[in-house]
Amino acid sequence: MKVQYLATLASISLLSFGAIAGYANPCAAKTPSNTRTEISTNPCAGANPCASKSQVGSVGAPLAEELQGKPVVVDMFATWCSACKNIAPTLTQLKKEYEGKAHFIVLDVSDQSTTAKAEAKAKQLGLGQFFAANKSQTGTVTIIDPATGNILAQHKNNPNLAAYTQVIDAAIGQ
Predict the structure, then answer these.
(1) Among 97, 81, 61, 70, which residue's Cα sits nearest to residue 140?
(2) What would the pLDDT profile of 64-99 be if each residue is shown by its tens digit?
(3) Cβ(29)–Cβ(21) under 8 Å?
(4) 105: helix, strand or coil
(5) Taking the complete model, does pTM exceed 0.90, yes or no?
(6) CA triplet 164, 128, 58: central angle to 5 degrees?
(7) From 19, 56, 99, 170, which residue has the greatest number of CB atoms within 10 Å?
(8) Could you give the domains of the chain?
């Protein structure tokens, strides 16, 4: 009797663990155990939907006329973000060094009201698609070529001044 009870308890525990593990991993293939499924049928195969969705390449739209002629440095900022605090001195130094030579845009996503204002500002500047793709990437600084809309560099929590100056200098020299 005890053996049967323990075996039943173990079976229930294993089934419960399997159910919990299935819910914990949204990419786990939901297929019956008696069928064989190719990896390509798994909607999560090849891409992690839980990974950050940072758009690298281009901003997706032409930038506003007021941004043309100078590299655009976009800071995805939040007051509660430790990475933002880490890179703040570097950004302050960049703003001083490149005053009049580059555009600096801060998109504040600290709370709902600042996020709404930042989204409106981004849309006005032609950065609406970029904002939608990167609003959860606080502590990220992106340097954009306004003529092409191409992202020249994107740094996450990088306080290294040289990493930014190298890209901005190259963009100014074009």
Answers:
(1) 81
(2) 788 888 999 999 999 999 999 999 999 999 999 999
(3) no
(4) strand
(5) no
(6) 50
(7) 170
(8) 2-41 (no CATH), 65-173 (3.40.30.10)
